[in-house]
Design brief:
It is built from 27 helices and 12 strands. The protein is of the alpha+beta class.
């Protein structure tokens, strides 16, 4: 099927045509044309409108029984969307007097193709369809990156997602403009980074950031990991190890049954959940893999040939706060990534105690809440990436970690579904029974009772009160 035939059959195109009695001056542009040319389903639509954008958006929303709203008054951009999210149409005022003038302002040739909404042949002044056939990403013109430096990140993201090679001239132009990659607003950078990290090939996306000279500008903390040598448990420097952990994280995602056993379906469901900033827990886990050792450069010490990174978990959490602040990330995403870093060492320190008594399981679940499942998956990827000559990198040590992680994943999933044990005795009741004031000591007693209840040491009100009384003595 031709591009026009694929578009004509796409539900959002059918909807838009039905909504507009005379669709003259309305053009299908951007990703929808590209996806149609690649034989992909067209779910979302971008339209360039020569006329009243608001009126067109409202007409489409009425026809589809959806909603319409303004996205940007500055750029005359509106969105019409289905109540259930099954379709979305973005509409922007055409830039220039003609569609050719509009396309001249776009970023890459593969997005500078327009098809009349009412039907007709594509307008393709820059050979975008031919570039798609050649699997090539090429800028529209010399001003593409200077007009909007965010396009530098987009180049890496699109090339990785669509399996395109970046044109040599585009690479050269990107490198010359790379110092400007940090200029766009942080939230705009985060949108590109979340799509790159959450995309089908984040490893290639990161390699492209390096190739285009963007990593040191947008994620200088990641660049700082290069050349930071580690101890005998690691065969790679911190940067190489970090990329290996991300690679192993993708492996864990793809093989949940191997690592989670019979709880694989629950793990898959959890990872698919939206977290914050339009990022799923799976994508957040990938970010966590990329940032979990970000504190190592500032904590590295070496004495008598022995390398340590004491406190890199805490320092890493501080650095993540700085990164997320720069990217205008939400508090929820920031805290989640910080928690992953703060707790990524905890399970490894517990291996020597295996099999863990219930109280130690409780300690882990309570300490890592609400990222207990996520951080346990991260520890699996982290341990699988340690392939040095040290004791902790031995096959036996790795298998022991995987076995404990599998048990802890099950416990963490149960904890997440059921929550902590319901208290056998309320704090006010305990304070009256023990004739003690409300304060830190009472809080400590209640925490101990929760642990004792989880472990099965107490199971009734009387047992809980007596246990607390003995502790006070």
């Amino acid at each position: 099927m031709s591009v026009t035939e694929v578009l004509a059959a796409a539900p959002p195109v059918v909807l838009a045509r039905c909504a507009l009695a005379g669709p003259e001056g309305v053009w299908i542009v951007g990703g929808a044309v590209r996806d149609a040319a690649l034989g992909r389903d067209v779910v979302d639509l971008d339209l360039a409108v020569a006329g009243d954008v608001a009126a067109v958006a409202k007409a489409i929303a009425r026809e589809g029984k959806g909603h319409s709203f303004e996205l940007s008054a500055e750029f005359a951009t509106w969105r019409a969307t289905a109540p259930d999210g099954s379709w979305q149409i973005d509409l922007t005022a055409m830039r220039g007097e003609t569609i050719e003038a509009d396309l001249a302002e776009r970023d890459f040739t593969i997005g500078a193709v327009a098809v009349p909404l009412g039907g007709g042949e594509p307008v393709d002044p820059y050979g975008g369809l031919a570039d798609l056939d050649r699997r090539l990403l090429r800028v529209v013109g010399e001003r593409s990156f200077s007009a909007d430096p965010l396009r530098l990140l987009r180049a890496a993201r699109l090339a990785a997602a669509l399996e395109l090679e970046v044109d040599a001239g585009t690479v050269s132009l990107a490198r010359s403009e790379a110092p400007r990659a940090g200029e766009p607003a942080g939230e705009r950078q985060l949108v590109e980074l979340r799509q790159l990290i959450g995309g089908p090939d984040p490893l290639r996306g990161l390699r492209l950031l390096d190739e285009l000279g963007l990593t040191s500008v947008v994620l200088p903390e990641l660049e700082a990991l290069r050349g930071v040598e580690q101890g005998p448990n690691h065969h790679l420097d911190v940067h190489g190890h970090t990329i290996a952990v991300l690679e192993r994280t993708l492996e864990v995602e793809a093989e949940l049954e191997r690592f989670g056993g019979e709880r694989a379906a629950e793990l898959e469901s959890l990872l698919a959940e939206p977290l914050a900033d339009e990022i799923s827990r799976a994508t957040a886990l990938r970010f966590g893999a990329l940032l979990h050792d970000i504190g190592k450069p500032v904590t590295r010490t070496e004495k008598d040939g022995f390398v340590t990174f004491i406190g890199h978990d805490r320092e890493g959490a501080e650095i993540i706060g700085t990164i997320c602040g720069r990217l205008r990330a939400s508090r929820a995403l920031t805290r989640h990534l910080q928690d992953l870093t703060l707790h990524h060492l905890r399970l490894g320190f517990m291996i020597r105690e295996a099999p863990l008594p219930p109280r130690r399981v409780h300690d882990y679940l309570r300490a890592t809440e609400p990222v207990g499942v996520d951080v346990t998956l991260l520890t699996i990827a982290d341990r699988l990436s340690a392939r040095g000559s040290g004791r902790l990198a031995s096959e036996e040590a790795i298998e022991a970690h995987l076995a404990l992680a599998r048990e802890m994943l099950a416990a963490a999933l149960d904890w997440r579904r059921q929550g902590p044990p319901q208290p056998l005795v309320r704090g006010d009741e305990l304070a009256i029974e023990l004739k003690m004031p409300v304060g830190p000591e009472l809080g400590d007693l209640l925490a101990e009772l929760e642990a004792a209840q989880y472990a099965g040491d107490v199971s009734t009100w009387d047992e809980a009160v007596e246990h607390a009384r003995r502790l006070r003595r």
